[in-house]
Amino acid sequence: xxxxxxxxxxxxxxxxxxxxxxxxxxxRSLRVTLTALVIACAIALPLAAFLAVRRFRMRxxxxxxxxxxxxxxxxxVGLVVYVFLSRAGxxxxxxxxxxxxxxxIAQVIIVVPLVASVAHQSLRELWSDYHxxxxxxxxxxxxxxxxxxxxxxxxxxxxxLAGFGRAIGEVGAIMVVGGNIDHATRVLTTAxxxxxxxxxxxxxxxxxxxxxxxxxxxxxxxxxxGRTESEGRW
Amino acid sequence: MQMxxxxxxxxxxxxxxxxLVGPVDLTLGGQGTSIIIGPNGAGKTTxxxxxxxxxxxxGGSLDWACPLEEAQKHQAxxxxxxxxxxxxxxxxxxxPLRLTGLSRRQARSRAADWAARVGLGEILExxxxxxxxxxxxxxxxxxxxxxxxxVLFLDEPCAALDGRATREIEEILAHAAGSGTRLIMSTHNMxxxxxxxxxxxxxxxxxxHEFSPAAEFFAGPETAQARAFLNGDIVE
Lengths: 234, 236
What we know:
In chain A, about 75% of the residues lie in helices and about 0% in strands. With about 230 residues, chain A is mainly α.
């Protein structure tokens, strides 16, 4: 219990004094996570709409695989990305290992199946509403996907937020491919793991509270920006 | 462009081994309003959707006087339960125009004009999903008519509406028909059929039992089933 109070107090002081390390780590966490999320959404949302609209032979199998990939163990993803980016790996020449770019790649791989699966569930229902109408209007496949993505935007925001939650709290993969290097690849989650390992529970808890506050703040900001709760106009 | 006559030859729709519609042999000319009537489950909706092309046929043929791709561009469908896209009234009506490549500004300008014509001019920016039943059906009509189709299919457009809304919808339909739009519509409402029909298609068990000019049909149907239906008897 003492550790909890100490952690809360530590978090408070870290925030009030705008601790330079905390600010750096937090900004890096946000940069890596938001970049990964934007890339993941750019891949996952059209994929989800495509799977909702298009009928093809292996569609059910593809959806089943996508759902299964939601449970990808992050540390395994990290390991695979590590192998690919290491000097001996096929992409070793780019020198990306232990850089924020490697962390973004790992997070994209982890987040895409989650965002695509959640988005697909919503878009499938929307497509069952729109199916006859859009076919009747002679909309092309691309126009149908566009309509689903635009009209399903609130549900897709929820999918994106789920992806953000997964990415911001991820530690296993980014620890493997990022290396938790100070002033280079250290983010909130890897810093928490490090402080815990050192026995600095108060600091670890402090960083943990900052992480939770950050996740809540981003969620609230997106909801506020979207006016999803009050007006529902966008 | 000449779309009619529309000729169905042995057209059939089957699902899971059961014949829902057909075989249908029918030739529709390019003038007036055709009303499809028949008891529940007779196949009116499936017949309409088959003619429009959104239900796949399992046999027979359906031939327009022009290439199918051209015919598809010049027809529209109004569903019994109107599908409201999750956007504003004006953006719903503008959507079919946007599909043709019209700019957003032009599409919204024409959509606003059509919204005013159907009485939705005051609520252009309201979310379509918030509309009442009558307003939804007017929006669906405006959205169907905004591309000025040569033929408009309507599946019981007034099924759940009160008298006032029904009258407003019928006025819009009469105006569209007067402007040269070919209407093919199903209804349960015999009064509406009498008011709007130029010709009547009586459907029973997925087949066309009678197809005749409205005046002749209502004066004295040829078949016993049609007579029973007009008398309000249960027909199966």
